[in-house]
Amino acid sequence: MEDQLAIYGGPKVKSGPFGSGQRFGIEEAKELMEALQQNTLFYHFGGKVKQFLRDFNHIYGVNYSVAASSGTGAIHIALGAAGVTLGDEVITSPITDQGTLVGILYQNAIPVFADLEPHTYNMDPASVEARITGRTKAIVVVHLAGNPCDMDAIMDIAARHQLKVIEDCAQSYLSRYKGRLAGTIGDYGCFSTNDFKHISTGDGGMVTVNSGEEEDYHTVHAFADKNYRRFGSSVMRDLQTLAPNYRMTELQGAVGIAQLKKLSWICGQRTDYGSRIGAGIEGIRGISPHRVVEGNTSTFWFYMLRVKEEELGCSRNEFSEALAAEGIPCSAGYIPDVVYMQPMFQQRSAYPGSLFPFDITGINYERGLCPNAEEILRTAVRINVNEYYTESDINDIIKAVHKVSNHYQKN
Ligand SMILES: *Cc1c(COP(=O)(O)O)cnc(C)c1O
Question: Any signal peptide, and if so, which residues (predicted)?
């Protein structure tokens, strides 16, 4: 019987492989060779990181950006430039990569988690506002999985409370909020080019400086480079404050130049495929699609639906296993739990042997703090999206979600 689930011995919806492709080629090799021929791999003396940033700035329509050695570094740089320091609170999302949080804690500031909108999986502005205290210095919004946050509301809150806004765009290249590119709306936009993102330089990152002011750019730049300020061959080493070294090398810059040329195609494919999955599963009883607000563009780093367990009469895990058995690459949830349930927050052990900086305010990270976020991770099924998938791969994903849902609805 064709509609017998594969997990119970029926035929799989997808038996062959998914479309795949080669993300690096001769274009990257050529840029790398030129980088080596420069006889320096230092960003300030070579031309590759500079070219990479010029191209990136052109795509993003910004005057200034700074290269970094990782997305984690990019976010730390933005926090440092924003003046986040000891005892400040920074409001962010409980469903994110821990790279969002590292810089906050290294600045000895305290992460405060806002709850999420149940279907976009992005920060709910009302919850953000409710978490503001006299210590709040900044908001780090996370555009999760390529889907832009409600930036008008966030920017309005930030303006009223004089907070800096940092956009974590590690998963959201070329995502658009009401037509504007995510990463150009807050004070700073932070990107990652680690090997799992839309484009890769092995590791790397970028920070956009959205004020467009030269002095701001110098502050950001210095925070990425031990607070050195470089002018031609001279270096100003006056150290007033502490800053790490998150410099990008010419090798990363070289690969990045070639990768940026593919970015528009990659994001276009992902937007198309994610949107098709969304349209294809719309209206299935017991399934909540990944919501992209009308007027916005998601570039789908992944597609994440939610299972209404009561309506479907199966658990999220059963659904996810049945879907995987149909040959669809997917997984139950995203991260295992909201980040504040990690031992580092539960035991306040960021710095071993100390409760710092959590003891500054005695902040509590108890279960139930962000109920929507907790429920999202408990009921979500994440489906891989890749630019090399074919249209028939996408049709099979849709078919398999229907097949598995139909089966459980009947039981
Ligand atoms: C990948 C990622 C980061 C960290 O980037 P790295 O380059 O791995 O340091 C930060 N935030 C989010 C949301 C990410 O997905």
Answer: none
* Planar angle of CA 338, 91, 123, nearest 5 degrees: 60
The CATH architecture of the domain made up of 26-259 is 3-Layer(aba) Sandwich (3.40)
Helix spans in 143-249 (H): 151-161, 214-223
**Contact of 197 with 301, CB cutoff 8 Å:** yes
Residue type at 311 in one-letter notation = E
Ligand 1 centre to CA of 377 (Å) is 18
C-alpha 211 – ligand 1 centre gap (Å) = 23
Q: What tokens were used for 169?
A: 């765009």
> Which residue has its alpha carbon closest to ligand 1 atom 6?
71
Number of neighbours of residue 157 by Cβ within 10 angstroms: 18
Place 1 in a pLDDT band, splitting at 50, 70 and 90. Answer: low
Spatial distance between the Cα atoms of 81 and 72, rounded to a whole number of angstroms: 14
* Closest atom of ligand 1 relative to the 75 alpha carbon: 10
Q: Tokens 């593919």 appear where?
A: 262
Compute the Cα dihedral for 371, 178, 92, 130 and give only its sign. Answer: negative
β-pair partners for 297: 176
Ordered by start, the domain boundaries in the chain are 26-259
What global pTM score does this model have? 0.98
Measure the CA–CA gap between 266 and 148, rounded to whole angstroms: 17
Q: Which residues contact 227 (CB under 8 A, 6 or more apart)?
A: 237, 238, 239, 240, 241, 242, 243
Distance, in Å, from the CA atom of 265 to the CA atom of 260, rounded to the nearest integer, reads 10
Q: What is the pLDDT of residues 136-175, one digit of tens each?
A: 999 999 999 999 999 999 999 999 999 999 999 999 999 9
Structure-block tokens of residue 247: 């410099």
Fill in the amino acid letter for 92. Answer: T
Task: Tell which atom from ligand 1 comes closest to the C-alpha of 73.
Answer: 9
**Angstrom distance (rounded) from CA 91 to CA 132:** 8
pLDDT of residue 103: 98
